[in-house]
Each structure stands twice: as C-alpha cells, then as structure tokens.
Amino acid sequence: MASAAVAISPSAPFPDAVQIVPFDAPLGAEVFGLDLSRPVDTATFARIKQAHLDHHVLVFRDARITPAQQVDFSRRFGPLQIHVLRNFQLAGHPEVLIVSNIKEDGKPIGLGDAGAYWHSDLSYKEKPSLGSLLHAQELPGEGGDTLFANQHLAWDTLPQELRSAVHGRLAEHSYLAKYEELRARNPYRPALTQAQIDEVVPVQQPVVRTHPETGRRALFVSEHFTTRIVGLPQDESDALLAELFALSTRESLVYRHQWQPHDLVFWDNRSVMHLAAGTPDHERRLLYRTTIEGDAPF
Ligand code: SIN
Questions:
Q1: Active-site residue, 76 included
Q2: 298 located within any domain
Q3: Which domain CATH number covers 150?
Q4: Closest residue CA from atom 2 of ligand 1
Q5: Residue 6 forms part of a structural domain
Q6: Is residue 7 in a domain?
Q7: Residue 121 falls in the annotated catalytic set
Q8: What percent of the chain is predicted at pLDDT more than 90?
Q9: Annotation says 211 is catalytic
Q10: Is any ligand 1 atom within 6 A of the Cβ of residue 151?
C-alpha cells in the first residue's frame, strides 16, 4: 500500500504551470500549481478532467477554497447529488455533506462514520456518483486516513473462474443494507423517515461495469451496499461476494491517503472504492464532501 508522501514536487518550467505527478501507487496523482480559489480556464480544466480519468484519484494540497468554490468547481463535472441524510447538509449549501465525528452540545454536526465500509458513493442509486470531492477542514492528530482501491485492476487481475462466474451478472445495491448495524454502533446516526427510505429503494447494477468515458472495465460491488448477486441462491451469492470483496480491496490495489491541512481529494467512483480508516473518538475530524452525479452503469 502506498501513500501520498511519495509524490515529489516537480521542477516547474513556468511558475504558473500546472503539473500532474502520479503517485508510486496503484492509483492517484498530485496536482501542483493550480489555485482553485481562482477560475480554472478551459484548457486547464480539460487537463484536470483527463488526469482524473487517467489516475482515478487527484490530490490538491493546501486548497484554500470556500464551500461555494468547492461547489462551483465540482459542478463543472456534472450535476451535484444531495445526500439522503439531509440532517448533515452544510447550512446554505445543501450540496455539501458534512463528514465529521465532532459533536456540539451533545449533537453530531456531521456523518461521523461515513465510509466505515468499502464502497463507491451512491452505488445504491440508479445513477450512482461520477466522483466525489472531499475537502479537509479540521484534521485529527492521529488516524483519519482514507484508502482507495483500484477497481479496474481488481477486474484485470481477477482469476478466470471468478470472471466467468460474475460476467454479465447483476447485483443488488441497497443504502439500507448496513444502516441499522451502523446505527447500533453509532446511535448518533438518525433514524430514517419513510420519505428517506422511499428515496433509496434498492437497485440492480452490473457486477462488472464499463467506464463510460474510458471504456475500461471495473468491478462494481462493495461490502457496504451490495446485498446479493441476482439469480444465485443467497449462500452461493454470499460466498462469491465475500471472495470479490477480499480480492477487490487487497493491499496491492490500494493507495492510502494521509490528510494534510486543506487537502482537496477528488476521486472517480466509477474506478475506485474507498474506505475511511477511522478516527479515535478523542480526536476531531471535519471534511466537506460534494458528490457529482454519473451515468446509469452498463
Ligand atoms: C466518504 O465515504 O465519503 C468519507 C470518507 C472519509 O471520511 O474518509
């Protein structure tokens, strides 16, 4: 497993030139020389978009941007999705989900256990997320890393018998799959209203999806949201999914992001799964997430 510490600051030929430096890892790159608090011109935006497709996770260090600037930049990639947990929207910015373990007056200010299981954001929607942007506001002194696993490599390296077993199959994804289990562990997670439950009816997605922009195949099942492979008896489906979950998150596919102040991390939910490694209760962690809508997987 590799971390961002390996990205070496490039020697820029021009003071303002944007440079994209891949990590020595199965995915990820750092973007140097881009001030996201200023408008990004069309040519630079095209480079960022291509780098996102090539590397799947982009890291912008020391991004001094406001929530409005995060929303504006995110929106250039597509419409934004509003998370079903309206309780944790940032005031004045419904497109921003507060990811935080902080409690004020005994109440959580954000979703503290977001990302506690490997997942791709909003895979339980007919149109799951294209990508998500997470901006660090306050970081813990220990813990709080985010792990990303390359699902193109997961598919490319899957043993032939597993490829044959899943090729052409659909799997069910449900937001509710682990909701009560998470609530039991974290009573601060709100009970869902009937309207919220109606908003997240389970959907069926291909087990192997084709990236709509690059044409690359990727595994698209996760321990958080995938409940069963359609058409298989539950015990067979459970066994197959357990194998897929283990193989798709093995260390050789993973980049571990160690957060630095003001980091903005932008990942491609069509190419990677991610996991929040966890933060000790006595530490404070606060990040703002925007989520871009993608296409229906095929
Ligand atoms: C998420 O799953 O959106 C949050 C990940 C994290 O907190 O590291």
A1: no
A2: no
A3: 3.60.130.10
A4: 115
A5: no
A6: no
A7: yes
A8: 90
A9: no
A10: no
